[in-house]
Write a structure and sequence with these properties.
Radius of gyration: 16 Å
Order of helices and strands: EHEHEHEHEHH
Strand order of the largest sheet: 3-2-1-4-5
Shape: globular
Strand content: 15-25%
Bound molecules: 4'-phosphopantetheine
Structural class: alpha/beta
Number of strands: 5
Helix content: 40-55%
Length: 165
């Protein structure tokens, strides 16, 4: 059984993430989307919300499950018998850091990192940019699933009413 992890923060999940997960699901027997739940960083959505949005987004993929992880990604992989990590590469600028992480992860556990080139229509897409553009009223409805867009709009309105954005 060939298993892979698709790790990330997913705050929130974008259409670019779903594209990579879907393509990984055709390359591996099982794919586990690994949602980093490290509490030290401030997120727009809680770990539970991010996991739930990913589960909803990945419902169409039969061999994809979603789980949270805290601590090292390699520990998560070892505990589940996962020997491959799939990462999307948007541009050359992603490569240096991703290569460093891939090599560090390979030094920690028996895991290979597989880089999948992001589809051109998503090459500019990042959760951080989606949040920034949405915060200032830009239209991001084509960049995230419809229900994520609704939750993003609602969460930003909440934060705005609290004077928090
Ligand atoms: O979506 P992101 O923020 O690019 O995801 C980064 C993530 C969560 C994949 C990465 O930070 C990670 O693997 N964190 C877990 C901690 C860890 O294993 N660190 C060592 C990396 S070499």
């Amino acid at each position: 059984m060939r298993r892979a992890a698709c790790p990330g923060t997913f705050d929130p999940v974008t259409n670019g993430h779903i594209d990579i997960v879907g393509r990984a699901s055709t390359l591996f027997d099982e794919v586990v989307v690994a949602v980093g739940v490290n509490k030290s960083k401030r997120r727009l959505f809680s770990a539970e919300e991010r996991i739930e949005m990913l589960r909803e987004s990945c419902r169409g993929f039969d061999n994809v499950t979603v789980d949270g992880f805290d601590g090292l990604l390699t520990t998560f992989c070892e505990e589940r018998g996962i020997h491959a990590i799939v990462k999307g590469l948007r541009a050359a600028s992603d490569f240096d850091y991703e290569l460093q992480m891939a090599q560090m992860n390979a030094s920690l556990a028996e895991v290979e990192t597989v880089f999948v080139p992001t589809s051109p229509e998503y090459s500019f897409l990042a959760s951080s940019l989606v949040k920034e553009v949405a915060t200032f009223g830009g239209d991001v409805s084509g960049l995230v699933p419809g229900f994520v867009h609704e939750r993003l709009t609602a969460r930003l309105a909440e934060r705005r009413s609290q004077g928090d954005v």
